[in-house]
């Protein structure tokens, strides 16, 4: 039997900041913030999905690395799994309202999706090299 569907999120760090993006749709979450990412397609590896979603959403190539933190069970049963990634390129908001590099001090300044809010301590540890 296939496992639960996975949504990948991407923790892209640069100069101690993490890249967040602001959703443009659907209406109930428009304006809220998340990490770049999306659904892993059938037959696709998690890391290939990370690279594809960053290409589609941000117009950049990233090198996906290790998973960060625990899987979070989303309403409906899909799993949110975060991977670290690096890039030299400058992201643009292709499908989103905005992208923003957030320092640790700024992590609480935006309205995150609920699952990401749970993961904020993990993001913080990752940004300070503890996870
Ligand atoms: N990309 C992303 N999705 C997240 C995060 N946190 C979180 O709860 N989600 C949820 C929101 C959505 O219900 C789902 C991903 O939806 P999506 O619209 O980005 O996925 P997708 O591009 O593959 O679109 P679709 O074809 O599955 O509709 O995961 C996050 O940090 N990044």
From TrEMBL:
Domain of life: Bacteria
Sequence ranges assigned to domain Nudix hydrolase in this UniProt record: 1-125
The UniProt record lists the keyword Transmembrane helix: no
GO biological process: DNA repair; DNA replication
Pfam families named among the record's database cross-references: NUDIX (PF00293)
Enzyme class: hydrolase
Family matches, as PROSITE patterns: NUDIX (PS51462)
UniProt KW keywords: DNA damage, DNA repair, DNA replication, Hydrolase, Magnesium, Metal-binding, Mutator protein
Essential cofactor(s): Mg(2+)
Catalyzed reactions: 8-oxo-dGTP + H2O = 8-oxo-dGMP + diphosphate + H(+)
CDD domains xrefs: NUDIX_MutT_NudA_like (cd03425)
GO MF annotations, alphabetized: 8-oxo-7,8-dihydrodeoxyguanosine triphosphate pyrophosphatase activity; 8-oxo-7,8-dihydroguanosine triphosphate pyrophosphatase activity; 8-oxo-dGDP phosphatase activity; 8-oxo-GDP phosphatase activity; metal ion binding
EC number, UniProt record: 3.6.1.55
Similarity comment: family membership: Belongs to the Nudix hydrolase family.
Protein name listed in UniProt: 8-oxo-dGTP diphosphatase
Lineage: Bacteria, Bacillati, Actinomycetota, Actinomycetes, Pseudonocardiales
